[in-house]
Design a protein that fits this description.
By secondary structure, this protein is α/β, with parallel strands linked by helices. It folds into two domains: 4-126 and 230-326, 3-Layer(aba) Sandwich (D-Maltodextrin-Binding Protein, domain 2), CATH 3.40.190.10; 129-223, Periplasmic binding protein-like II (D-Maltodextrin-Binding Protein, domain 2, 3-Layer(aba) Sandwich), CATH 3.40.190.10. The chain has 13 helices and ten strands. A five-stranded mixed β-sheet has the order 2-1-3-10-4, sandwiched between helices. Strands 7-6-8-5-9 form a five-stranded mixed β-sheet, with helices on both faces. Strand 6 (149-152), helix 6 (156-168) and strand 7 form a beta-alpha-beta unit. The radius of gyration is 20 Å and the shape is globular.
Amino acid sequence: MRRHPLRALPVVRRTVAFAALLSLAACLSACGAKQDTISAGARKPFTVMLDFFPNADHAALYSAISQGDFRAAGLDVQPETPAEPAEPLKLLAAGKVDMAISYEPELLLAREEGLKLVSIAALVQRPLTSIIALPGAHVASVADLAGKRVGTAGIPYQAAELKTALQTAGVSSSKVREVNVGFNLVPAMLSGKVAATLGGFWNYEALQLQLLHKHPVTIPVDQAGVPTYDELVLVVREDEAHTRGQDLRAFLQALTRGEHEVRADPAAAASLVVKANPSLEGKLQLASIERTLPAALPIDSDPAHPQPFGYQDPSAWANFGSWMLAHGLLHHDPNTALPPFTNEFLPGQGL
């Protein structure tokens, strides 16, 4: 979702065989062979457009910058903050930055509009978007939304997520009034304007409300019937997925080291995020990092043969793309062309 403005609040038909999808993914190989040893010559400038201002979701990036992991990989990585939430993918497609952090639904929508972009890794491996309600609304489950008002930011796929959740719970959509509250999701709940919201994140807004002792009820959308998807992804231009394989592999190796550093010392990582964005509250950032760490790992990864940090599950992408198509969010099946993601550049991956 367009996550960004929420953070400005005070306290946001599978139609192709699985094997065919994997085959298409291989087409995005940069050079046909993996190179897990990256030599650091002269450092290349590499700009990364954030999805919004620095926050806990970017901890691995800032750790890898601070600890010199990118420098050792031959990259001079510079994060940039967008002036507008809709900017990152558009600026990336225009060649203004080398990479953008975005969301799986947003990437699929951008590709629908003709932007030639592809995700090369997932920062967060599952949905953070949630249905959130305060105790006074008496909402303990999705079924309890019947007869109540639910606030969203007016984004079409939020409406589709709400519809799916209601259908899964056996509630007619006609019995729930969706209210567009813009990005004032938390204030809309606190003021009683709505009984619940769909759009805030379980690792941020819900956590913030917990720290304020508001005891929110939180239902992640993938636990309410919406297919799982990667909330945050790293996106590059399709042509550079063919021509800059070594740079992209180097970036992801360094970012993986940064993620290991965050796991080893979350408090230090939180300090780096706050240093990058002094307006943030350290306690919330640390709690958010700790809460998010499990979601940064691949789901159902085999302990004996774990998938690497950043791995994107092909079947999950296919299922979510089919869900968006079925709900009219897309008009072209994203599973019938070159896939919208590749794992080619992850450590240990590739041909």
